[in-house]
Structures are given as C-alpha cells and as structure tokens.
C-alpha cells in the first residue's frame, strides 16, 4: 500500500523529512477495523511528532491523526461496523497513522461519517471535534444542553482547527457568549463566521481588550495556542471559581499560583488519553463522533476545512506541515486521495 512516512526526524525542508513509501497492508484482529483511507487532515500534533530529534526508526513511522474512509475489513470482535461503512476518526498516537492507503483502528474510537459530507470535509473534523468537545464539556463541565447559557468563554486560537469547532460547540450547543482571539483580518472574519460574538487580538493585552468590551472577566478560558505565552492573561481574566483548559504542552513551569486566590481550576485536555491508556470508557469517543455526525447532518455544526491541498503524498504532507509550523493556516488543511 502507498504511505507517507519517515525514518529520521528532520526539519520539514529536508528532502527526507517525509517520504513516499510502499508498505505491507495490515490485517485486522480483535476490535480493529481496517479502513481504506480516502482523505486525511493535518494537525499540529503531526509536526510535533515529526520534530527533529536524534532518533532513527528501523521500521517506517507513518504519521497522520485524522481520516475519513471506508471499512475494508473487520476483526472478529467488531460489533459497531461492517465492511463498506463510511467512517471518520482521529486514531491512536501509539499506532501507525492515517497517511496510508489502509489503516487499522479500534472501533471504539471510530464514528460513522456524516452523510452530508464528502470524505475530504469529514476528515477535517475528528481530532479537533473530540479535543474541543472534551475540553469544553468534559474537562470544564460546561453543559452541552445550554444550562450555562449566557456565561462567557474566551477561546485563544479561534481560527485554528480546534478553535474553529470549539467556537461552534460553545455557541450552538452551550449557548455561551464567545470571545475568540484572532490577529489577522481574515482569521477574525473566519472566527466571526463560525459564531464568535467578539474578537480580541492575542498579540495584544487580552484582559484590557476584554474589559473594553464591557466584561470584567470570563467564566471559562480555552487555550488552543501557546500555553506559555497565554496562561498569565488567562489567569488574570478568568472569573473566581472559573476554569481554564489547555491543549498545548508547556515548555516552562506554569505559574498555577496565579489561580489560588480565585479557586480557579486548570485542566489538561489530550484527546489521545483514552486510546493511549486503553481506558474503560474508550467507547465514549465513538459516541462523541456519532453525535458530531448527527449535528453536522442536522446543520448545527459545519465542517472546518480551510484548504484542500491535493492528494496524499509526501510533497503535499510536507507542505501542510510547513504551513502549520509557520502559523499560516486558517481552519483545517486536508489532503484527499492517493
């Protein structure tokens, strides 16, 4: 099968950073489904895993943590899917990724693809939808039924992949007042089109900008971009007894003491936790994706594709990595077909 992978961890401009490969097609066992991959999207986790380091792989390392495709075969314990089912999923960071013609994935973290979307537009959703949903509704415990309507959330990184679906979940389901950050006119317009009520610039004084909007604080903060740079502002603007959730690893110690007087909470969100540790509730991600598909087909949520870069090959995957590393992407970058 065709695949895009690596043996060495190199800067993205290096010719061998990502390679076109021919690998054996795997066979499913247990609760695995074998998916014929039709489209993938690229996320910051891809380039973070690929980041330069002094390591050489004996077997090819295939990245890719978002896909949509068709079930080609099923393991003997599979009960949720059958051959021919269109599916979408984000996969498992501990296993071979989606940048390949066929991929094995545990059925408990797979959803039925939204019927109203083609494979390319469906592939944009899984990782970011799971991340934003878990951060907002499971970590911060905001009600997805609107019981917290009217409360305020600050979404840092509103025009990125996770921010793009996070704005929609916060506005359409939770009925929150959404303040999103964006630093360019085009990214600000994108965030507004998804439902953001207000825009602030994360390169400026965010607490001052939020106060200028007439708000003394926000009930929740979602940090979807640069925890180190944005945590102090988040701690300043979060309400007493409020909560902050971040998805971005820190490079230096986080000054959590800033939250003590407010009795405010800090939550980590990592969407691979369930699959990485084989938690007893892994199937919650299947249920989550099923609900996301229902909401998309009902017109409540929309896909977050920013650009389709072409077929799945090393050149296009390298291009996507470079765009994400340089912070030039709005919405999700998608590749379709081999």
UniProtKB/TrEMBL annotation:
<keyword id="KW-0479">Metal-binding</keyword>
<dbReference type="GO" id="GO:0016491">
    <property type="term" value="F:oxidoreductase activity"/>
</dbReference>
<dbReference type="Pfam" id="PF13602">
    <property type="entry name" value="ADH_zinc_N_2"/>
</dbReference>
<protein>
    <recommendedName>
        <fullName>Zinc-type alcohol dehydrogenase-like protein</fullName>
    </recommendedName>
</protein>
<dbReference type="InterPro" id="IPR002364">
    <property type="entry name" value="Quin_OxRdtase/zeta-crystal_CS"/>
</dbReference>
<dbReference type="InterPro" id="IPR020843">
    <property type="entry name" value="ER"/>
</dbReference>
<feature type="domain" description="Enoyl reductase (ER)">
    <location>
        <begin position="16"/>
        <end position="335"/>
    </location>
</feature>
<dbReference type="InterPro" id="IPR036291">
    <property type="entry name" value="NAD(P)-bd_dom_sf"/>
</dbReference>
<dbReference type="InterPro" id="IPR014182">
    <property type="entry name" value="ADH_Zn_typ-1"/>
</dbReference>
<keyword id="KW-0560">Oxidoreductase</keyword>
<comment type="similarity">
    <text>Belongs to the zinc-containing alcohol dehydrogenase family. Quinone oxidoreductase subfamily.</text>
</comment>
<dbReference type="Pfam" id="PF08240">
    <property type="entry name" value="ADH_N"/>
</dbReference>
<dbReference type="GO" id="GO:0008270">
    <property type="term" value="F:zinc ion binding"/>
</dbReference>
<keyword id="KW-0862">Zinc</keyword>
<dbReference type="InterPro" id="IPR052585">
    <property type="entry name" value="Lipid_raft_assoc_Zn_ADH"/>
</dbReference>
<dbReference type="InterPro" id="IPR011032">
    <property type="entry name" value="GroES-like_sf"/>
</dbReference>
<dbReference type="InterPro" id="IPR013154">
    <property type="entry name" value="ADH-like_N"/>
</dbReference>
């Amino acid at each position: 099968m065709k695949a895009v992978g690596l043996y060495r961890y190199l800067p993205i401009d290096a010719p061998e950073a990502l390679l076109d490969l021919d690998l054996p097609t795997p066979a499913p066992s247990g609760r695995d489904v074998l998916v014929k991959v039709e489209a993938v999207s690229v996320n910051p986790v891809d380039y973070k895993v690929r980041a330069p380091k002094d390591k050489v792989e004996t077997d090819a390392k295939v990245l890719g943590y978002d896909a949509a495709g068709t079930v080609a075969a099923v393991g003997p314990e599979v009960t949720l899917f059958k051959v021919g089912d269109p599916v979408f999923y984000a996969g498992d960071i501990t296993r071979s990724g989606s940048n390949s013609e066929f991929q094995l994935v545990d059925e408990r973290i797979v959803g039925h693809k939204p019927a109203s979307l083609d494979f390319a537009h469906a592939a944009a959703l899984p990782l970011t939808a799971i991340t934003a949903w878990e951060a907002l509704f499971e970590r911060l415990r905001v009600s997805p039924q609107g019981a917290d309507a009217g409360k305020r959330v600050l979404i840092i990184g509103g025009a990125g992949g996770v921010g793009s679906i996070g704005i929609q979940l916060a506005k359409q389901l939770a009925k929150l007042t959404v303040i999103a950050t964006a630093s360019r006119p085009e990214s600000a317009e994108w965030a507004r089109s998804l439902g953001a009520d207000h825009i602030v610039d994360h390169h400026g004084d965010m607490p001052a900008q939020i106060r200028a909007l007439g708000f003394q604080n926000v009930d929740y903060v979602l940090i979807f971009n640069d925890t180190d740079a944005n945590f102090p502002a988040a701690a300043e603007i979060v309400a007493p007894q409020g909560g902050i959730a971040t998805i971005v690893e820190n490079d230096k110690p986080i000054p959590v003491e800033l939250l003590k007087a407010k009795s405010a909470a800090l939550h980590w969100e990592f969407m691979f936790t369930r699959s990485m540790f084989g938690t007893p509730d892994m199937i919650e991600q299947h249920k989550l994706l099923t609900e996301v598909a229902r909401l998309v087909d009902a017109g409540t949520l929309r896909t977050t594709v920013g650009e389709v870069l072409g077929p799945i090959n090393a050149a296009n995957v390298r291009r996507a990595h470079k765009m994400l590393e340089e912070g030039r992407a709005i919405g999700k970058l998608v590749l379709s077909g081999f």
